[in-house]
Amino acid sequence: QPQLVESGGGLVQAGGSLRLSCTASRVTFSNYAMGWFRQAPGKEREFVAAISMDGGTTEYADFVKGRFTVSRDDAKNTVYLQINILKPEDTAVYYCAARIGFIDRTYASRRPTEYPYWGQGSQVTVSS
Predict the structure, then answer these.
(1) By the 8 A CB rule, do 79 and 25 touch?
(2) How far is CA 96 from CA 5, 61, 114, 115, in A?
(3) What is the pLDDT of residue 103?
(4) Residue 8 and residue 105: Cα distance in Å, rounded?
(5) Dist CA 15 CA 86 (whole Å)
(6) pLDDT value at position 3?
């Protein structure tokens, strides 16, 4: 099973940008579809973005509104989440998740229950 490690989080001022990375090991990364989720204090984990196994399909939560971009680099075993125009309400722990993508190479899931593998999370804090 894949081991997922997120990085790139930190303290950022509102209006700033950052890029989260999630690197997978122990597996053939190109066989997996990937997702990003977040959990703010006192709130449930919510979907942020997802990318299909073949990279051709992406899905975003409505609140993203063009500020987030998910991408993948299979040569580096890494999926990225670029976040622009950060807002204080983006403060959360961001998690990447993986699921085998063979059944539908073009499917990018919004459902956390469809991802059996999760990273440990990366804290993003946005100051106003």
Answers:
(1) no
(2) 8, 15, 13, 10
(3) 83
(4) 27
(5) 5
(6) 96
Residues in the chain: 128
Q: How do residues 69-89 score in pLDDT, each as one tens digit? A: 999 999 999 999 999 999 999
* Three-class secondary structure assignment of the chain: CCEEEEECCEEEECCCCEEEEEEEECCCHHHEEEEEEEECCCCCCEEEEEECCCCCCEEECHHHCCCEEEEEEHHHCEEEEEECCCCHHHCEEEEEEEEECCCCCCCCCCCHHHCCEECCCEEEEEEC
Question: CA neighbours within 13 Å on the CB side: how many for 127?
Answer: 4
Q: What is the pLDDT of residues 40-60, one digit of tens each?
A: 999 999 999 999 999 999 999
Name residue 124's beta-bridge partners: 10, 92
